[in-house]
Specification:
By secondary structure, the protein is of the alpha+beta class. The chain has one domain (about 5-40). Helix content is about 40%, strand content about 15%. It contains 1 helix and 2 strands; from the N terminus they run βαβ. It has a two-stranded parallel sheet. The radius of gyration is 12 Å and the shape is elongated.
Length: about 45
């Protein structure tokens, strides 16, 4: 299974939360053969 993940830093979720969330997805991908391409966008106001 492949699911695209979009990460937008500064969207109200701290960097430490997105870091651990990505680590969890990487472990799931490793264990079950999934892929989760992570797209990271910077938002500038």
């Amino acid at each position: 299974m492949t699911k695209k993940i979009l990460v937008i830093p500064g969207d109200g979720i701290g960097a430490e939360v997105t870091t651990w969330g990505k680590a969890v997805l990487e472990k799931i991908a490793e264990l079950y053969g999934h892929t989760f391409p992570v797209l990271k966008y910077e938002v500038v106001f």
